[in-house]
Specification:
Belongs to the BBS5 family. It comes from Clunio marinus. Its main location: membrane. This is CLUMA_CG017210, isoform A. This protein is an alpha+beta fold and 342 residues long. It folds into 3 domains: 121 residues, PH-domain like; 123 residues, PH-domain like (Roll), CATH 2.30.29.30; 44 residues, no CATH class. The strands form 4 sheets. It has an 8-stranded antiparallel beta sheet with strand order 1-5-4-3-2-8-7-6. Strands 9-15-14-13-12-18-17-16 form an 8-stranded antiparallel beta sheet, covered by helices on one side. A hairpin with a 6-residue loop joins strand 4 and strand 5. The longest helix is centred in the C-terminal third of the chain and has 20 residues. It is elongated, with a radius of gyration of 28 Å. The N and C termini lie far apart (74 Å).
Amino acid sequence: MANRVWEDREIKFDIPNIHKKLRNGENILEIIDSVEDTKGNSGDLGQLVITNIRLIWFSLTNTKFTLSIGFFTIVTMNTKNVISTLRGSTDALYILTSTPKQRFEFIFTDYGANQKHFGSLFEIYKIYQSTTLYRELKLRGAILTEGHLNILRQEQVYTILNGVYNLSSDQGNLGTFIITNIRLVWYAEANESFNISLPYMQMISLRIRESKYGLALVIQTGPNAGNYVLGFRVDPQEKLHEVHKELISLHSVYSETPIFGVNYDIKALNKTEDMLRIDDISEIDNEASSEINSKFTAYLSEEDREEHREPFYCKELGFAMEKLRDGYTIKDLWNVMGTTTR
């Protein structure tokens, strides 16, 4: 019935200009500059684009090198502090993903001068995880409170229709339809916990067909929603055709501009971060900060012209380590902050 939404559920490689091919309803929420795809394209800097449903990385030097990682595929995500020859201490983002056919690990290293890092990505992904009702079929969920639908953000209720039979059992269950701009909800009158919340995103067909109960509204869901065939009887037939027409219209409008439910106020976050930076600055000891270990910084940034330095056992640290460059001692590198007498 509509263009299939694959962007949050799949991983795609090497699609030229993928960052310029966002689907309707997809919004760019954050851009992080100077990010390396460390595992797949080491040494090639690009941009990391975070949308409301996926993560996009593309090379700034070769338009062929791109990645699209749907949020639904992410299994785990964390950051580690790493030491690089380009920037010294920086953040690396580790993402483990899983699709029905394969598992992938991605590593992105932030080399940006502004050191924006990846905090906004974790916030956006957390919102995505908490808004599944916008995108997923839900059976027997806590979607109602005392017979009233818990309205989602951006959701508008258009029709509430009583006396609708769910034909999933031999005798049928009497209940109520709630039709909104995002989903179709049905719940049983005798037990509101027996319910269905079905987003238009998961519908692949809406038809009126003959059943053993007479004409019925038949809705088929896609593979992402279990390939269900759901039947509902609406009386009288005139009302059945009205409901069918309304659902077809709303489904068409939704398909043009899906509502994914991921709303992220980057300005509010930036304002909070600015306030935190101001507070941090007021606590900095200027005298101590001027004594940051210059030898440590020089050691990290100095180009290593030796191809290999043999390891040795360091008695001071209690483990084997690579031989230091000439002119440096363990104490030089261990004391990151200078010592002062108070």
